[in-house]
Amino acid sequence: MSDQPFAFFPAEVVRTARLSSSLLRITFGGPALAGFASGGRDQSFSLFLPHPGQPEPVVPVEEGEGWFWAWRALPEQERAVMRSYTVRAARPELPEVDVDFVLHGDTGPASAWAGRAAAGDRVLLLGPAVEDNTSVGFRPPAGAEWILLTADETALPAAAAILEWLPAGTRVSAFLEVPTEDDRLELTTAAEAEVHWLVRDGARPGLALDALRTADLPAGTPYAWVAGEAAAVRSIRRHLVGERGLDRKLVEFTGYWRLGSSEEQLRAEAIAEAQAAAEAAGQAAVTGS
Ligand SMILES: Cc1cc2nc3c(=O)[nH]c(=O)nc-3n(C[C@H](O)[C@H](O)[C@H](O)COP(=O)(O)OP(=O)(O)OC[C@H]3O[C@@H](n4cnc5c(N)ncnc54)[C@H](O)[C@@H]3O)c2cc1C
Hints:
By secondary structure, the chain is α/β, with parallel strands linked by helices. The protein contains 6 helices and 12 strands. It has helices at residues 67-73, 109-116, 156-165, 207-214, 230-243, 263-287; strands spanning 6-18, 23-29, 44-49, 81-86, 89-91, 96-102, 122-128, 146-151, 171-178, 192-199, 222-229, 251-257. The strands form 2 sheets. The protein has a 7-stranded antiparallel sheet. The chain has a 5-stranded parallel sheet with strand order 10-9-8-11-12, with helices on both faces. α4 packs parallel to α5. The chain starts with 5 loop residues before the first strand and ends with a helix.
């Protein structure tokens, strides 16, 4: 067993299955996945995809811990497309990993790749080598009396896996926003879950906030897990903390995508912010402020 929490796992597409108008399940397989140790819930990982015409994704894994900067130094058209996805299910005994992709057309390389994926297509996963890892965000504290889930279609795989993971007797209120009526997938849970489906039907993301504003939520202290489009997630968090007075430490929120920005752009922004913060900290250290 590895002592590193994350590792690279080469894999290939085994099969695809259309779940609904917006969602496609892709099952990855390959011997390396026997060591893929999903922690369940909203376990996420980085997926590397080839560009059209490339036989496999180009990632300088031989650089070890320096792989990220070596990957980033490669020309954009050569280096693999890197995107975040959720482990919908893992079966290490086979070994297989299911990932549910939102198909939003050819507007993004990952969506375009998924739409054309066929058995044998090669990918690379950077994912968990140990079950207890930092890419699981859903961690309700002992004192939480009920669970609030809000998710759009990109976070539906995570919400579905969380519902499967929760033990019997847990009270859950889930607000699940999807593009079309047939995206209302069948969910399995032992929890006492009240699921509110919100069908966008062409509207912009954000129906969950409207529904939450008027919702009669259970009494007691909740743990809230909020994921989906970044602006919608921010508004929901503001509502929960500001208007409903939830303790901010009990609200786990993650922007899974941002309307109008690719994940590449979001990563570039995050790197620029981190560099600016590091420079400011350096300045402060020099001036003693
Ligand atoms: C922790 C985490 C887990 C995630 N899990 C999943 C998952 O299991 N399944 C899943 O499908 N997604 C998941 N996502 C979201 C996924 O990473 C993004 O949707 C990603 O932007 C898709 O890459 P792309 O190459 O298709 O589009 P990009 O190149 O990143 O974006 C291109 C354009 O498409 C738009 N766009 C991106 N995603 C969508 C969308 N869903 N609908 C409409 N427009 C979009 C962008 O705003 C941009 O304008 C997850 C994200 C995170 C951070």
